[in-house]
Amino acid sequence: MPVLVASDLDRTLIYSAAALALTMPDARAPRLLCVEVHEARPLSFMTETAAQLLTDLGDTALFMPTTTRTRKQYQRINLPGPAPKYAICANGGHLLVDGVTDADWHTAVQARLADECAPLDEIREHLLRTADPVWVRKHRVAEDLFAYLVVERELLPEEWVKELAAWAENRGWTVSLQGRKIYAVPKPLTKSAAVREVARRTGAELTLAAGDSLLDADLLLAADRGWRPGHGELADTDWSAPQISALPERGVLAGERITREFLKAARASTAGRHG
Question: How close are the terminal C-alpha atoms of the chain, in Å?
Fold first, then answer.
């Protein structure tokens, strides 16, 4: 498969009920397919049209989910179409091949983090000390690689986030605010590094990507072509790059549009080679 499609999942391809952004009259809302169940409750959705497009994409290109989720969180998702041969979890910390972690890749990532940035324990301690219990709901560590907080957004002081970002920057870490989560992620822990590795292994001639958050910027820059939805951190900061299309759609309809763009580009590339 010479076309590699690396896509972020949450708020890019799949959407929680809170992130659907169904602004049309109820009678005209798209039919939705549940693609994630957690503790017996439906959690994430895509439109039925997007589900069909994703199935077609899996037959045309090498589709690779590329997520900041942990492996356990990723494995709850049941996407339509062929089971992906490759998936990237923990923001590039784990490269899954047929659902199993590539141990060599993970070891190399850990070595790089130890060399290039402050240890996770230092970051955690700072978060525990400075985050106010009034607006923090949960403190979490993901895969022993990075940390995140679940917060009450309406109570969260913007200044605190800015101060945290500046503090983390000096220690080789990045801060990203996505919905109700604040992530602190080591700078060398990137989706793009893992995507380049899969492109190398598969001999991909074209890489397509999509994402909505600051943690997806490196992924989009590493792709030959990319798309971002009309919501999320990248849209809020008007982030752009020459090969990136900024879409007007927001919410679950942006996910449908992104899947359609992926399929169109993959088919055009295949037709070009065969033509």
Answer: 16
- On the 0-12 / 13-18 / 19+ scale of CB atoms within 10 A, 216 is buried
The model's pLDDT over 143-169, given as tens digits with 9 standing for 90+, comes to 999 999 999 999 999 999 999 999 999
Quote the percentage of the chain above a pLDDT of 90. 96
Alpha helices in 135-210 (DSSP H): 158-169, 191-202
Secondary structure class of 100 (helix, strand, coil): strand
Spatial distance between the Cα atoms of 91 and 148, rounded to a whole number of angstroms? 13
Which two structure tokens, joined as six digits, stand for 23?
A: 């602004």
Residue 127 makes CB contacts below 8 A (sequence gap 6+) with 139, 147, 149, 164, 184
Cα separation, 83 vs 123, whole angstroms: 36
What residues does 95 pair with on adjacent strands? Answer: 88
Are 81 and 63 within 8 A, CB to CB? Answer: yes
The pTM score is 0.94
At 41-55, the pLDDT tens digits run 999 999 999 999 999
